[in-house]
Amino acid sequence: MESFTPLSATIGGTLIGSAAAVLWLGNGRIAGIAGIFRNLLPASHNALWRLVFLVCLILGVFATARLLPGLGAGGVEPVRLVEAPAARGIPTPIWLAIAGLLTGLGTTIGNGCTSGHGVCGLARLSVRSLVAVAVFFVAAIITVTITGIV
Amino acid sequence: MSGFKLSYLATAALSGVLFGAGLYVSQMVDPLKVLRFLDFTAIPTGGWDPSPAFVMVPAVLVMFIAVRLGKQRQAPLFDTRFHEPASRAIDARLVGGAALFGVGWGMSGICPGPAISLIAFMPDNLWIFLVAPAIGIWAGSLVMPRATPATVAQ
Predict the structure, then answer these.
(1) CB B88 within 8 A of CB A9
(2) Which residues of chain A does B81 touch, with a Cβ-Cβ cutoff of 8 Å?
(3) Does residue A1 fall inside a structural domain?
(4) N or C end: fewer C-beta atoms under 10 angstroms in chain A?
(5) What's the domain range around A36?
(6) Are B153 and A30 in contact (CB < 8 Å)?
(7) Which residues of A touch B76 (CB under 8 A)?
(8) Is residue B70 a contact partner of residue A25, using CB atoms and an 8 Å limit?
């Protein structure tokens, strides 16, 4: 349990909720990252705020990592992507490509991700989002169990 | 046409910075941190990390309050209406899409927010996890007709 970090998790979650609140009360938009990324194209007047949001998302991570090194990820130890489980015999780049394809495909077909359905949908008491969240959590837990990735 | 207004773009910028700060502070940008939560097999051995639940709960609570506040207003501060996702359908598309995403998430520990956030650190192989989802999005829009803007959880 030494990796359990309830305080930083709670502070981080509050910041994420505040981000969603600002976008909702200011611009009436859902802070769903998959949706924002997906709708970058076509480049219309509605794409500009999405580009600004995503660039500032990266800047927010970058700046916080500089201000508070070691508090989150990427401070003391550099963040790494996972390696494919050795027992599966699939090279890591292929493994990541399959995972990335499924992530892009699934969030497009299912219209949302952990932020859109998770944070915003649940807060809106959307039954649709609740179903999506339950399905992707269960699918992810089963996947981790079967693949033995951890 | 609020898309070019400075106040509108500044709001998007502030939201993005807060979101990024939250993802970093909560360590949700670390794929292993997320996977240690999704690994329920570690519960009996005491190696399970429930931290992501402590991220999710306050995030939903703060947004829940914002949604309540929003209901008392006709419109958000800088636009003429709230862009509420209109779709209420719980169908094969929703469940199938969520299931595919869940498998991808479980294989990698990366959901879309962290995928883009990780550009700040540029870890090895990240480019794969930026190009592959883009191809997935393209494939998804071919398989499924593009939802009308009102139904997209933007």
Answers:
(1) no
(2) 28
(3) no
(4) N
(5) 6-147
(6) yes
(7) 24-28
(8) yes
HSE at residue A25, side-chain half, CA atoms within 13 A, is 19
Report pLDDT digits (tens) over B2-39: 667 999 999 999 999 999 999 999 999 999 999 999 99
Domain total in chain A: 1
- Single-letter amino acid code for the residue at A137: F
Q: What is the pLDDT of residues A96-131, one digit of tens each?
A: 999 999 999 999 999 999 999 999 999 999 999 999
Any domain includes A57: yes
Say if residue A96 is exposed, middle or buried (CB neighbours under 10 Å; 0-12, 13-18, 19+).
buried
So what's the ipTM on this one? 0.95
Task: Determine the pLDDT at residue B24.
Answer: 95
Q: Which of residues 120-139 of B touch A (CB under 8 A)?
A: 120-121, 123-126, 128-139
Domain parsing of chain B, residue ranges: 1-82, 85-154
Say if A138 falls within a structural domain: yes
- Residue with the two structure tokens 């494919």: A84
**Cα(A147)–Cα(A132) distance, integer angstroms:** 22
Please identify which residue in the block is written with the tokens 């909560």: B26
Which chain B residues contact residue A68 at CB under 8 A? 24-25
